[in-house]
Prior knowledge:
Layout: H1 3-7, E1 9-15, E2 22-28, H2 30-43, H3 60-64, E3 72-77, H4 87-97, H5 102-109, E4 116-118, E5 121-123, H6 131-153, E6 156-160, E7 163-168, H7 176-187, E8 198-201, E9 209-210, E10 213-214, H8 220-236, H9 243-255, H10 257-275
Antiparallel strand pairs: 1-2, 3-7, 3-8, 4-5, 6-7, 9-10
Amino acid sequence: MPERLQKNYDIYYIGQKNSNKKRLIQQPSPELKNKQKKLISLYELYPLPPACACKKGSGPLDAALPHLGAKYLLKVDISNCYQNITPYMAYEAINRNFPQGNIKKQMLENLDTCFINWEGKNMLPTGAPTSPIICNIVLSRIDYYISKAAVRWGYQYSRYMDDLNLSTTADKRDWAIIETIKGMVIGAGFPINKKKTKWYGKGNNDAKIVAGVSLESISRRQIKRLIRARLQNLAINAQPIDSVTNGYLAYIKSIDEVTYHKLSEYYHKKLSYVSM
């Protein structure tokens, strides 16, 4: 890691809400920040799994919707996520999963610009604009394995940054799942925040919240808007309806069949218009 990159950051601590702990902030200089911003579009070319709800075009509602109607919600929190992501992890993810070519070469060559050496350790800087997308690239491996496991268990899974969410509509939760998920995360090189990792559901006074969104407070109007936006984006790009959007449509159909048919017609009309 070039020494000059360490000197291009303003490093300080700020207090955290409802905690005595302080958050480390590593703010890049304006010049370095502009350079990092130009790299975002490059790294956004990396294909992220549907379970990742913190990518371009997605948001907290995307993370929450798969869990609507859940009786139990398991939240697993990765501790100090950015500080535990190394250049090697990012290099391996890109080298293993992205096709050969000039774009891949550029991704690998520019990784040093996205990291900082702090107290003898290379890590993602908390204030760099490239850190969220590099984090997603590295965590996509965890998303892949947990998503496959969730399908076997009959659970829903989504991730928003370092928060992993699994849910079930079953009357009973599988307590063994939490240890399996912990094993996957720790095996990938990340520590677990034990205090923030727990079940929410029956007999629990805490509300089921995903990415700051309460599952009990999501309105039908919000769901309709999100699905409509997803369908429009798919139609404009002449893409078929993906599994995540199909899941949202299935939920709408279960509560409002008229709206379901309207949304389906909307997609096909948009698609036929684009194909003309």
